Amino acid sequence: MVGETVAVELTRHHGLGNDFLITFADDVPPDGVDLARRLCDRIDGIGADGLVFGTPVGGSGDATWRFTLFNSDGSSAEVSGNGLRCFGQALLRREATGTTGLEVVVETPAGDRRITVDGSTSDLEVEAEVEMGAAAAGPSIEGIQIDLGGVQVRAAHSIDFGNPHLVLLVDDPDDVDLAVAGPVTESFFAPTGCNVHLVSVVDRSTVRMRTWERGAGLTMACGSGACAAAHVLHGKGLVDDVVEVRMPGGAATVMVGDTVRLAGTATFVDSHTVDLGDDQVGVPGNGVPGTEVPANG
Q1: CA angle at 44 for the pair 42 and 47, rounded to the nearest 5°
Q2: Residue 64 belongs to some domain of the structure
Q3: pLDDT-derived band of residue 133, with 50, 70 and 90 as boundaries?
Q4: Rounded to 5 degrees, what are φ and ψ at 40?
Q5: Cα–Cα distance, 297 to 294 (Å, whole number)
Q6: Best label site of 204, 234, 255, 278, fewest CB within 10 Å?
Q7: Any idea what the CATH number is for the domain that residue 169 is in?
């Protein structure tokens, strides 16, 4: 119907600077791809690395919610460690005021993932842990040519945690212009794409990592990438079972085992009500109606 608008409630969260818009609905809308592009745009939209839809799951399985993630370019992502931690906080904030702690099984395209949140409905920042599952072989890298602008690649490994990752071991991730090398390296994996990570070992319990993320570009952190890096380095005997992965947005802890676990913070940023209709997204900052509630509001 012309002129009809639908108000949608969203919350924005970040896991170490990797930020997501999260909304809950009965079903993922058919225009989810377009909504992700428009809402995640940092100039004309609200701004985020991805848009998450939480939809209820019926049946007798363990999962009670389905996690569907669109990257900021509209592409689909199978799973996200930071996104799942943020999703856990968003679910906790839906509980009765004063509720503390949450454990939930979430269905993703990569399989079920268990999220445990330590915090309360009123906490702006909570601790969250995700069971990320087992690592598997990633896409083939046979024939790949990696040019990091003269920086030597000491090892290259392809890993899958429900989504694809290329882990490149270098002496110092900061020596690489990842905004240039990232998309060129990822192009080898077209059309599916791949997350590209530069990692270095600080000591047996600490690594550093920078990420070019499939569908989002340079990001402050990548949770599933942290798991991939820790798994690869553990397999090479360079790190122990518990690893702190330091990224530009902060540090997450990865516990390597048959099932890899990812722990770190999830932070509530703000809430938004947007009006969807007539091919226009009403969001604060682009000249059309919308409301915003900041984290300290």
Answers
A1: 25
A2: yes
A3: very high
A4: -85, -10
A5: 5
A6: 278
A7: 3.10.310.10
